[in-house]
Design a protein that fits this description.
The structure holds three protein chains of three kinds. Chain B is 75% helix and 0% strand. By secondary structure, chain B is mostly helical. In chain B, α5 packs across α6. Classes of the chains: A mainly alpha, B mainly alpha, C alpha/beta.
């Protein structure tokens, strides 16, 4: 690969900022889940909002790069991929906020949510890895990450299976676990999409569908 | 520390150039002025139409000399211009860096430098002595003049054709046009302004050459009846009459000189004002 | 995709210096093939080999074959015949200044002989319309070819080449000397012409190649480095050198 253009480095810097913000958010929400904290809706919402704003900035900057520099080949792929990944990170932030919303909505004192918390952690790890693969332009790593998506899907189904037979669980517990697992599974999907973009960036092959 | 400011230096140099130019042109202007002043009085209908009489007569004219000049110039152009043009075409388009081409080019350059007197002697030796049993003939005079035309026209032709941009030739090549058509119909067509100018200026130049005619066409007081005879010409007329003791003869000489200068100047002006601009329009 | 020009083992020299090294390429029919590469890479030499103009340069030598419709251009055919069947447009517009606009269009035909005047008039009109010049010059057909603007002159040269009904149209940096508006007009023209003509265009403007070509050939130091579809070359070229040239990382 040729050396990186300055404007691509600029875009990557913005993406790294987004990722840091996503991590901060994610840590806070993880903490809220584990310690049954409530009342964090506003602060998490604000963080999600600022990440959406950053996403718009990346998009706008990308378009300006195309106008100004008319990039081709690897430069072109770098710009379009950066724009796509910013969208994916924006979605991830949104999902993290949704998870917190679930936490605020439901009374979970009597509910076993450790599976969902684990799933949440693993999905966050996938996103983290996919961004690392992006910054290192590591297509091999990206391919491996995406193959983990299947396991996340399976665990999500396992969680749902538990509730197929209504029994001793409270309605709130069912709802929380079901909905949150779904949200978290979508997060993992986006980690996979990011990995697809990394593969396209490095090899120019585009064969996957969202 | 400057002696003069930059602005003053500019003005000084400009004035210097103008003054020098005036000094250089003055003799020309003086000559023209003098010829007009002295020659014009001799001009009248009689002057242009009568045969050349005895030097002391004031009723003699220069009619035969005018006709003779045009006839001899005409014949000279007839063979000199085409030869000159084709030599120029050869040098411009066909001669590459071969020894043959260098020889031709040197020969043409040298011809341009040969004194007209020598040309006249050569023509006299070749034609008058060997071919004409020592009878003077206008043909020999034309031949000498023609030899002088050739290098002038060849040089003008070659230069005009060299100036034609190579892009044009490439366009013709790319269309698959054969070389001879490209040379004659396109390049020569574009160079035609320069070639015509060269031919006209050559004509003007030989109109003033006297030496070649002295041993070849000599002189003839009467209207020309054929080309293989001695013939009058303006140049030789002036030469003959200028040294005569008779005032009528001298006056007539000035009159003839005026005519000659007008022809030469006229051609130069026509070339400069009409021909060059017309042919440069498309460039 | 039919092949119009099958170039095999083409080598070319200027005196001792080798300008083209073993070029093998199949130029497709009725498409625009762009030839790109840094200065001195042999792109102009390559197209000039196609219409056998390279051999006119001092010390020029060519080896190899170029087969067009089953006939080897270098196989004993008269070079002038080749040039009548393969047209060329140059970087600097070069209409004949001593001919009118109308005469310029049919200059090649007229100087090859054998056409009646009425035919020539019709051919003039048709080709001027084809290049989009008709409307602009129809009242001035008898003015000198050189009296037009630069962009118009270039379109006139294209009309002149097209009038010969060439099998291939070669264009050597045809818009380098023109302003952006004329350039745009000529690019539009090229896109229109490729429906019926095979076009090979040399350009040092990578963006132009991206805009108008179907196939791109990248030359470097006399060698053909990569030849592929335009969208492949400009999205993900196979060769590192191509990548570096296109993204401007080259000196």
């Amino acid at each position: 690969m040729v050396s990186e253009q300055d404007y691509v480095s600029g875009l990557n810097g913005m993406l790294m900022e987004m990722m840091e913000a996503v991590e901060t958010m994610g840590d806070q929400v993880h903490d809220a889940l584990v310690n049954h904290k409530k009342g964090m809706r506003q602060q998490i919402y604000d963080q999600s909002k600022s990440i959406q704003i950053k996403e718009e900035e990346v998009e706008e900057t990308g378009i300006q790069c195309m106008i100004r520099y008319q990039p081709l080949a690897s430069d072109l792929r770098a710009v379009t991929v950066a724009m796509k990944i910013s969208y994916d990170l924006g979605r991830v932030a949104r999902y993290i906020y949704n998870v917190l919303e679930m936490n605020e909505e439901f009374n979970l004192r009597e509910c076993d949510i450790h599976q969902v918390i684990e799933l949440f952690g693993d999905s966050r790890e996938m996103v983290r890895q996919s961004i690392r693969a992006y910054l290192n332009k590591d297509a091999k790593m990206a391919t491996e990450i995406c193959s983990n998506d299947d396991s996340i899907d399976n665990r999500y189904r396992d969680i749902l299976d538990q509730y197929k037979h209504q029994g001793v669980f409270s309605g709130e517990c069912i709802l929380f676990n079901g909905l949150t697992a779904r949200i978290v599974e979508r997060m993992a999907d986006h980690a996979c999409y990011i990995s697809h973009e990394v593969i396209y960036l490095v090899t120019g092959r585009r064969q996957f569908y969202r | 520390m400057r002696l003069l400011s930059r602005k003053h230096t500019e003005i000084l140099v400009k004035i210097l150039c103008i003054v020098v130019t005036i000094v250089v042109i003055s003799p020309l202007l003086w000559i023209i002025g003098k010829v007009i002043y002295t020659g014009l009085p001799a001009w009248n209908w009689n002057f242009f139409t009568t045969i050349i009489g005895p030097p002391e007569s004031s009723t003699s004219g220069i009619g035969p000399a005018i006709e003779g000049t045009f006839i001899m110039n005409g014949i000279a152009c007839l063979f000199g211009i085409p030869l000159g043009i084709f030599t120029g075409i050869y040098l411009a388009e066909y001669a590459h860096d071969s020894i043959f081409a260098s020889v031709i080019r040197t020969a043409v350059e040298s011809m341009a430098g040969v004194p007209s007197l020598i040309m006249g002697l050569f023509a006299a030796a070749l034609i008058v002595e060997n071919l004409n049993r020592n009878q003077p003939t206008a043909l020999a005079g034309s031949f000498a003049l023609g030899l002088m035309i050739i290098p002038l026209v060849a040089r003008a032709t070659e230069e005009s054709m060299r100036v034609v941009s190579n892009d044009i030739r490439e366009a013709a090549i790319a269309l698959g046009i054969p070389k001879w058509r490209r040379t004659l119909q396109i390049v020569v067509g574009i160079a035609s302004g320069g070639i015509i100018s060269g031919a006209l200026l050559a004509f003007a130049r030989i109109s003033g050459e006297t030496a070649p005619l002295l041993f070849t066409a000599y002189f003839n007081d009467f209207w020309p009846t054929g080309v293989n005879q001695a013939m009058a010409s303006l140049q030789v007329y002036i030469y003959n009459n200028a040294l005569q003791p008779y005032s009528a003869a001298i006056a007539n000489a000035w009159g003839a000189a005026l005519l000659l200068i007008l022809i030469v100047l006229g051609i130069n002006i026509i070339v400069r004002i009409f021909i060059r601009p017309k042919y440069q329009e498309g460039f | 995709m039919e092949t119009k020009l099958d170039v095999q083992n083409l080598n070319a020299w200027f005196h001792k210096k080798q300008a083209l090294k073993n070029i093998n390429i199949k130029i497709p029919e009725k498409q625009v093939t762009a030839i790109i590469g840094p200065s001195g890479c042999g792109k102009s030499t390559f197209v000039r080999c196609i219409n056998r103009m390279h051999e006119l340069s001092p010390g020029a030598r060519v080896e190899g074959s170029i087969v067009m419709d089953g006939l080897d251009i270098y196989g004993g055919i008269d070079a002038m015949d080749v040039r009548r069947r393969i047209g060329m447009v140059f970087q600097k517009p070069n209409p004949f200044p001593n001919m009118s606009v109308a005469d310029n269009v049919v200059a090649g035909l007229r100087l090859a002989g054998g056409y009646k005047n009425e035919e020539l008039d019709r051919i003039t009109d048709d080709n001027l319309k084809e290049v989009g010049l008709w409307g602009e010059v129809k009242d001035e057909l008898y003015k000198s070819g050189a009296s037009l603007s630069g962009g118009q002159q270039q379109r006139l040269c294209i009309a002149r080449a097209l009038a010969m009904k060439p099998e291939v149209l070669l264009m050597d940096e045809p818009t380098s000397a023109l302003d952006p508006l004329s350039t745009a007009k000529i690019e539009e023209l090229v896109k229109k012409l490729k429906v019926d003509n095979t076009i090979v265009i040399v350009t040092h403007n990578v963006q132009q190649a991206a805009r108008i070509s179907d196939m791109v050939a990248f030359f470097y130091l006399g060698e053909l480095i990569e030849f592929d579809e335009t969208r492949v070359i400009f999205e993900k070229p196979t060769n590192q050198l191509t990548e570096r040239y296109i993204t401007g990382r080259f000196g």
